Amino acid sequence: MLILGIETSCDETAIGLVEEGKRILANTIFSQEDIHREFGGVVPELASRSHLQKIDLVIKKGLKVAKVGLEDVEGIAVTQGPGLVGSLLVGIEVAKALSFTLKVPIVGINHGEAHLYANFLVREIDYPFIGLVVSGGHTALVEAREPEKYLLLGQTRDDAAGEAFDKVAKILGLGYPGGPIIDRLSQKGEEMKGKFPRPYLKGNDDFSFSGLKTAVLRYVKSLTPDQQEKEAPSIAREFQQAVIDVLVTKTLNAAERRSITRVLLAGGVASNSALREQIVREARRRNIEVYVPPPSLCTDNGAMIAGLGFWKIKGGRRNSLSLDAQPNLSW
Ligand code: KG4
Ligand code: ZN
Fold first, then answer.
1. How deeply is 212 buried, as exposed, middle or buried, from its count of CB atoms within 10 A (0-12, 13-18, 19+)?
2. What's the CA-to-centroid distance between 8 and ligand 2, angstroms?
3. Taking the complete model, does pTM exceed 0.85, yes or no?
4. Which residue has the least CA distance to atom 8 on ligand 1?
5. In angstroms, what is the span from residue 119 Cα to ligand 2's centroid?
6. Which of 132, 135, 185, 296 to mutate to test the pocket of ligand 1 (most atoms within 8 A of CB)?
7. Angle CA 134–330–125, to nearest 5
8. Is the CB of 83 under 6 A from ligand 1?
9. Measured distance CA(317)–CA(331) in Å, rounded
10. Using one digit for the tens of pLDDT, what is the confidence trace for 178-227?
11. Is the bond preceding residue 128 a cis peptide, omega within 30 degrees?
C-alpha cells in the first residue's frame, strides 16, 4: 500500500511517499530556514503562508522522485498536531482535498509518535522500549510496551531541548536554526568543566532547560564583545554538554528503573553528533541498546508520517473529512 504523508506542523513543508510503512520512494522537503533566519525563530504567519505557497510543488516533486502518479496513492496520512495551528491547517486541508478526490482513506498523525516511528523506517525493533523525543517544540520521555500504546513518563516544563539550542545560538549571535550551528561550533571549543548547571530535577522524569539558557545568558553578558567572540565555541560546547548530560542520564536511568533494555531517540536534536556518541557509549556500559535514525529522518520529514500512517490505515484507523488540527495534541 502506497501512502502519501504530509507534514506542515512547523517550518518544513514536507511530504513522503512510503510503501508498506517501510520503503521510502520519496522524502521531499522545502525548508523555510531562509524565511525565518532574519527573525531568529519561526514566525507563525510567515510559516503558514509559505506552506500554502509550496505544498503543491513539494507534492509534485515527491511524485516525480518516486516515479508515481497521484492515482497510485492508496492512503493519506497528515500531521494533526502538535504544532502551529495555521501551519497544521494547510497540510490538513490539502490532505482532505486529496482524500476526497482520490477516494482514499485519510488518517491524522501525532507528530511526536511519527518522530519515534522514523526508527522503524530503518530497521525492525522489538518492544518494549523507552523513547526520547527531542525536537524544537517538544522534549518527551515515553515508555512503549506495544505499538501505539505510550505512557508519558516526563516532558519539558519550559523550553524544549531544541528550543534551548536555538535560543543559546541567538544569545551567541550565531544564527538560526541554532542546533546544527552549535553542534559544529562546539567541536572547536574547549571544555569548561561544569561552568553551567545540569538541571536533573531529581526524583522525576521531567526536563527543564530555561535555567540553563539563563545561566548562559548571564555568563555571556559578563564578557566583553571580544571575549564573547573568542569564547563562543567553548560556551557552545559547555552548553551542549550540559543538555546532553541531562538527556542521556535521565533517559538511561528511566530505562533501568523500568527494566527496559531498549532506547529509541528521535526528533531534530537526535541528529546532534555529540548526543549520539555519548548515549551510545553510556548505554553500552549499562547493557542498553540504543537506536537513532539517520539525521535526515531525525528532523521533520514526510516519510515518518507516511510510514506510521500505513500501520494506522492498515489497522482500520480512519478520520472523516471533519479532521481538524490539534495544536496541543499530547501522547
Ligand atoms: O524535529 P524538528 O525538525 O522540528 C520540530 O518538531 O520541532 O527539530 C528541530 C529542532 C531545532 O530546534 C533545531 O535547532 C534542532 O532540532 N536541531 C539540532 C540539531 N539539528 C537540529 N539540535 C542539536 N544538534 C543538531 N545537530
Ligand atoms: Zn518535529
1. buried
2. 10
3. yes
4. 268
5. 14
6. 135
7. 55
8. no
9. 17
10. 999 999 999 999 999 899 999 999 999 999 999 999 999 999 999 999 99
11. yes
